[in-house]
Design a protein that fits this description.
This protein is 32% helix and 27% strand. By secondary structure, the protein is α/β, with parallel strands linked by helices. It has two domains: 3-173, Acetylglutamate kinase-like (Carbamate kinase), CATH 3.40.1160; 254-398, 2-Layer Sandwich (VC0802-like). It has an eight-stranded mixed beta sheet, with helices on both faces. It has a six-stranded antiparallel beta sheet with strand order 14-15-13-16-18-17. It has a two-stranded antiparallel ribbon with strand order 4-5. Helix 6 (151-162) packs parallel to helix 8 (212-221), helix 7 runs antiparallel to helix 8 (212-221) and helix 11 (354-364) packs across helix 12. It binds adenosine-5'-diphosphate, aspartic acid (ASP) and magnesium ion. Aspartic acid is lined by residues 9-10, 40-41, 46, 72, 134-135, 149-153.
Length: 403
């Protein structure tokens, strides 16, 4: 049975008019293969639910928080099914529990373990279009989980991988993947395709057009993913599993990320095992650490600095104070309001001088660099959050990425 997964993000199902347009897109896709639809909550709804959950205090019970914030997807799944009914098509909304979308029990950052393909196939065999709620999962013990902001992308790609769909189309409010966020640099250019390695880096560094876990799934299970607009026709951007041999750009795209916090352990005793002693308990707590810098030691003492997402700050502090046995330091310095800008491109492998072009451009604009980390196809620069958007525009221009 040939299927195609169609995922619609929040703005694409943001009103009943938009839902009617989505129903027409699903109808049109049904001539290509059996559509399996994944939906996000209507735009603004997840934020509204998060605010509501915090009405009684900043740290609501994690289980109830996920049970609440997952409800937006139920509403849009049913509305899309109803809209399809009005076009004369049979459709069935299905929750995570109904499709057996099993995840780990890490609330708000649950990871998919497995799903039950049979429910989806049976729904199609019965003549219905399955409309699956994105973002939500279910634990072994029946608790509802969510997969992190933007998690519906991951639901969609995971389903496409599991039922071996011919393609996973991610419909959103932009007509593809751009050289950078077009909201930040209005002259950003749409890419016809991008290679998997670059997409992994861009999403990993904050390009929210597609969630990083979705890209990881696509890479692991070789799912063909396309990002396109539900607002206007177009072929979108394909994420290629092979590198594009014609690629001559040195930098393909720029991603940026706000809401980052810099954590410095000042005056750490410079002995073997500090990095793992500090970072292992943090990763055991399910917290992602990014840019990591350890300074040269002076009199056997060093500074160890890393960045985390600001929403993980409280947990990082708890872990550092309670679980980091045997590591002594003089002072814990925590600085919020930093941002990260990342240049990504496979062309970096064969070109020198990229970093110096970037540093010169930022220096000319008076932007101070706090941390730098590089990999084969990426340079990440940590700066003040207030200067982040300006830095994106400056670097976008310095590498001639715009139209
Ligand atoms: P959805 O609700 O459809 O999931 P998102 O808001 O999560 O949509 O993602 C789409 C948004 O991602 C765009 O409106 C754009 O502002 C942002 N974005 C960030 N980086 C990029 C990029 N490189 N290309 C396109 N869009 C990007
Ligand atoms: N509704 C969820 C969010 O706003 C999931 C998603 O849109 O992908 O993050
Ligand atoms: Mg999204």
């Amino acid at each position: 049975m040939e299927t195609i997964v169609l995922k619609f993000g929040g703005t694409s199902v943001g009103s009943t008019d938009r839902i009617s347009a989505v129903a027409n897109l699903i109808h049109a896709a049904s001539s290509e293969a059996f559509p399996v639809v994944v939906v996000s909550a209507m735009s603004g709804e997840t934020n509204r639910l998060i605010d509501l959950a915090q009405s009684f205090g900043a740290e609501p019970n994690k289980r109830e928080f996920d049970a609440l914030i997952s409800t937006g997807e139920k509403v849009s799944a049913s509305l899309v099914a109803i809209a399809l009914n009005h076009l004369g098509l049979k459709a069935k909304s299905l929750s995570a529990a109904q499709v057996g979308m099993k995840t780990t029990a890490q609330f708000s950052k649950a990871k998919i373990l497995e799903m039950d393909n049979e429910i989806i196939f049976q729904t199609i065999k019965d003549g219905y279009i399955p409309i699956v709620t994105g973002f939500q999962g279910i634990t072994d013990t029946g608790d509802i989980t969510t997969m992190g902001r933007g998690g519906s992308d991951t639901t969609a790609v995971a389903i496409a991988a599991s039922i071996k769909s011919k393609r996973c189309d991610i419909y959103t409010d932009v007509d593809g993947i751009y050289t950078t966020d077009p909201r930040i640099a209005p002259d950003a250019k749409k890419l016809d395709s991008i290679c998997m390695e670059e997409m992994l880096e861009l999403s990993g560094q904050g390009a929210k057009v597609i969630q990083i876990r979705a890209v990881e799934f696509a890479n692991k299970y070789k799912v063909l993913v396309r990002v396109l607009s539900s607002f206007k026709p177009g072929s979108g951007t394909l994420i290629l599993h092979e590198e594009n041999g014609m690629e001559d750009a040195v930098i393909t795209g720029i991603a940026s990320q706000t809401d980052q916090t810099k954590v410095t352990l000042h005056g750490v005793a410079d002995t073997p095992g500090i990095a793992s002693g500090i970072l292992s308990p943090i990763s055991d707590a399910g917290i992602d650490v990014d840019v990591i810098v350890q300074n040269v030691s002076v009199s056997n003492k060093t500074d160890f600095t890393f960045t985390v997402a600001t929403h993980d700050r409280a947990e990082v502090e708890t872990v550092l104070k309670e679980k980091m046995h045997g590591i002594l330091y003089d002072e814990l310095i925590i600085e919020e309001a930093i941002g990260k800008v990342s240049l990504v491109g496979v062309g970096m492998r064969s070109h020198a001088g990229i970093a110096s072009t970037a540093f010169n451009a930022l220096a000319d604009a008076g932007i101070n660099i706090q941390m730098i980390s590089t990999s084969e196809i990426k340079i990440t620069i940590v700066i003040a959050e207030t200067q982040l958007e300006e830095a994106v525009r400056i670097l976008h221009k310095a590498f001639n990425l715009g139209d």
